[in-house]
Amino acid sequence: MSEKKIVVPGELITGERKRLGSHVFVENGKVYSDSLGLVYTDKDVASVVPLHGKYIPRRSDLVIGVIVSETYSGYIVDINSIYRSYVSKEYIRENLSRGAIISAKVRDVNEINEAELEDVRVFYGGELLSTSPVKIPRIIGKNGSMLNELKSGTACSIVVGRNGWIWAKGGNVSLLVEAIELIEREAHLSNLTNKVGEFLRKKVSK
Amino acid sequence: MAKKEEKIEYVKNGKRLDGRKVDESRSLKIEAGILNRADGSAYLEWGQNKVIAAVYGPREALPKHIQNPYKALVNYQYRMATFSVPDRKNPRPARREIEISKVCGEALEKVIFVEKFPNTTIDIFVEILDSNAGTRVAGLTAASIALADAGIPMRDLVAAIGVGKAGGEIILDLNKEEEDAPDAVDIPLAIMPRTEEIVLLQMDGLLTKEEWKKALKLGLKGCRQVYEIQRATLRKQYEAAEKEAKVGEKGEREKGEKVK
To answer: Which of A202, B43, B65, B137 has the fewest CB atoms within 10 Å, counting from its CB?
Structure first.
């Protein structure tokens, strides 16, 4: 992790030629940020990690969804995006009713950002937690380090969707909610994994 | 109504009626993220002006026939509270409010990457709680902070300020008293600070060419000051939290970073 710099929309990131990461744009050969966020640049990529924002589906994202309605050949799924998504019944063996929670992989996204899903897994019971989609990378952590910390600390089974929804079952879910709130609050700071680990250990030992 | 004999001096010894200099704006204070249920929000105090801006979206545009498959709609609503002026204001949106909504919405449409969100609408609600001239620029300044708070991709922020003339002098950020001067000219001006591209410009009254050049120069300078305050507002909340954390775990930081 290089130095962290907070930028506002329209602020210059670099004048050099670089590959464009997320949330940047080029004007007159210079790279600018398009949102409020933290700059992550290295030798050849310029990128901004936003601090706010909605979820826009990307191909092969894992998302958590809720069934909204049924059509002849599939289901309409709410995936916490601006746009609705569709999953074919090909990928599901059982009949789902409105309100069922599933996890799925984004198979494809069309030109108006509507997603088609595949690899569906249906959840029974458990709870659906919600957080901001831009905080999800921190909740997962480097190579899943934060997620492992959360799993071992709360003894929940957790599935984290890229869209900001988290499914959790068993264990201490209310402690998990507290930990997620902590991550949300301090998502832009470093050394968070250790801090959350300590927080969980302190709470469990009490 | 006004007596002919009585003549107010709007600028006396380089100072204005409220003690400001000619090129001095009123004190500006902005706070981002004040509403929980909105996607982005901002509260702004500019002299006596008080404004709340809320952003919802991008969200599905309804009814469906208004959707545009090539871009998002920007729906800007400027409204004045009934108690925002000395006499009660009729809450029904008047001609003035509808016009301001239109021009400010178009100004923001210029900075938002609307083409990234087809078939949606971005709703911006600006409520004027207290007014003392220059509310449209105050609303626009607040709305651009609210948009950044909502995480909506933008080319730039929008910084806005009023310039004009009162008592024969070109002045920055007129208040109500100055706007009511017999020779008053009022120019709301909004720019994209990075390129200094003008996104909103209106004018009430008459100016000579020289006066206009001077007013524009003064206005651009004012906008740049507004932009600095906007930038500081957006960065403030995160920088404060960062400092706090650094004090708490100075020793641990080194260790943690090596592990990563």
So the answer is: B65
